[in-house]
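quick q for whoever's on today - can somebody do inverse folding on this one?? i tried earlier but teh output was garbage lol. tokens:
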């Protein structure tokens, strides 16, 4: 069904915003489709004559410390990755002005959520991490700093979950990375789309300059996998993925930092389990399962 102007009540505010920001003319015929996955932001597919876009209207506030909403940074990431075969093609960006929220427009990526084929994801990360960038936020790359992030997250968790995690807190030293690269920080399977042009990484709302192993961890982590309703990778898939990335130094840091990353992820899941307990019981249960997987990993490694 197509809609012109503001006649579709479900999207009247979004359409009015697109008109006000000059992204669409009021007389442009469009078809609007709400997209799943926009937990904090309003995300729509907007199709018309000669264009097929994703329009993201950002929430006014940053809901989390670990995965912040950074509209300016997402737009910048899409622009610096243009033509690299990693991210969607940038169309337009309008930053927040007064009461008007930030709006990002990029090309729709045709395809399906990733389900198999770890090598293509590894080669995507190699292309991404090879792009020279600057101007993004810095995220921790030492084990101590990553674990400390987890400690802060546990302040919002159930005391019983916090106690279970604290009992297996990693005791380790891994120095900061010598080289920082552009990391997505939330590169789970739900943000990987496989289509005719290959695999693409979407939802760049919290990019950073960090350790390349962080992106590898978010892909191989069982907790991240189950949050997107995907079974954890097999040992063979894990090995094939690391081999395809083909960087011994990054592979070594992935092994060294996995306990710290796992602890932080477990703490995040514990906090989210509490936050969603009343508003989204199914989501809360998914985070509880991811927490259990993180705990199991930490116990096996201790």
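ok took a stab at it. sequence:
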């Amino acid at each position: 069904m197509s809609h012109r102007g503001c006649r579709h009540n479900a999207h009247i505010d979004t359409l009015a915003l697109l008109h006000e920001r000059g992204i669409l003319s009021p007389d442009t015929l469009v078809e609007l489709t709400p997209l799943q996955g926009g937990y904090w932001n309003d995300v729509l597919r907007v199709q018309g004559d000669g264009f097929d876009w994703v329009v993201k209207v950002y929430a006014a506030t940053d809901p989390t410390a670990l995965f912040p909403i950074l509209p300016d940074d997402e737009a910048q990431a899409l622009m610096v990755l243009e033509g690299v075969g990693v991210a969607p093609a940038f169309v337009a960006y309008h930053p927040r002005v007064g009461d008007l929220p930030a709006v990002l427009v990029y090309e729709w990526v045709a395809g399906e959520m990733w389900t198999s084929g770890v090598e293509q994801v590894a080669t995507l990360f190699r292309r991404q991490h090879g792009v020279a960038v600057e101007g993004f936020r810095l995220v921790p790359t030492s084990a101590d700093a990553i674990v400390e992030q987890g400690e802060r997250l546990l302040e919002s968790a159930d005391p019983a979950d916090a106690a279970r995690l604290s009992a297996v807190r990693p005791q380790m030293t891994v120095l900061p990375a010598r080289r920082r690269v552009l990391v997505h920080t939330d590169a789970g399977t739900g943000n990987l789309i496989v289509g005719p042009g290959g695999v693409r990484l979407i939802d760049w709302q919290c990019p950073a300059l960090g350790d390349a192993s962080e992106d590898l961890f978010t892909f191989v982590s069982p907790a991240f996998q189950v949050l997107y309703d995907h079974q954890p990778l097999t040992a063979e898939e894990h090995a094939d993925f690391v081999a395809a990335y083909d960087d011994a130094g990054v592979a070594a840091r992935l092994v060294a930092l996995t306990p710290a990353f796992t602890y932080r992820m477990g703490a995040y899941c514990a906090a989210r389990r509490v936050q969603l307990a009343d508003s989204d019981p199914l989501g809360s249960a998914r985070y509880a399962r991811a927490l259990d997987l993180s705990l199991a990993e930490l116990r096996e490694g201790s």
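fwiw Confidence is low (pLDDT under 50) at residues 1-12. also The chain has two domains: 3-108, 113-301. so keep that in mind when u check it
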